[in-house]
Amino acid sequence: MATKEKNIWILIIFLLSGLVIGGLLGEFASKVNWLWWLSYGQSFGLATPIELDLSVIIITFGLMFKINIASIIGMAIAIFIYRKV
Questions:
Q1: What are the residues facing 43 on neighbouring strands?
Q2: Of 70, 81, 80, which is closest to residue 25 (Cα–Cα)?
Q3: Residue 46 contacts by C-beta under 8 Å, 6 or more apart in sequence?
Q4: Taking 90 as the threshold, does the pLDDT of residue 4 lie above it?
Q5: Would you call 64 helix, strand, or coil by DSSP?
Q6: What is the spatial distance between Cα 28 and Cα 36, in angstroms, rounded to a whole number?
Q7: Alpha-carbon Rg of the chain, whole angstroms?
Q8: 54: left (phi over 0), alpha (psi -120 to 50) or beta
């Protein structure tokens, strides 16, 4: 059972790495004329953060996702690498 849990955590790390690296490559590709399509994507989440004021402490919640074509390709490559390793 521990090996299966370890594999799930490794898969999550691979997916997040593919998402971040792909997103960065998509942002860089937006400046190249023939690679502009890699930066095409959508942002979704909380546009303004939500604050919870408890008088003693203020907690701020916010979450925003920005997905582009390059990040989707990065996640697909991460899954491929995970299956091979």
A1: 66
A2: 70
A3: 61, 62, 63, 64
A4: no
A5: strand
A6: 9
A7: 17
A8: alpha
Tens-place pLDDT, residues 66-77: 899 999 999 999
Amino acid 82 reads: Y
What are the backbone angles phi and psi of residue 75, rounded to the nearest 5°?
A: -70, -40
CB–CB of 61/49 below 8 Å?
yes
* Token pair in block for residue 54: 């408890």
Alpha helices in 1-85 (DSSP H): 2-29, 69-84
d(CA 66, CA 37): 15
Q: What tens digit of pLDDT does each residue of 18-58 get?
A: 999 999 999 998 888 998 898 899 998 988 889 999 999 99
pLDDT higher than threshold 80 for residue 6: no
Instruction: Give Cβ neighbours of residue 83 (< 8 Å, ≥ 6 apart).
Output: none
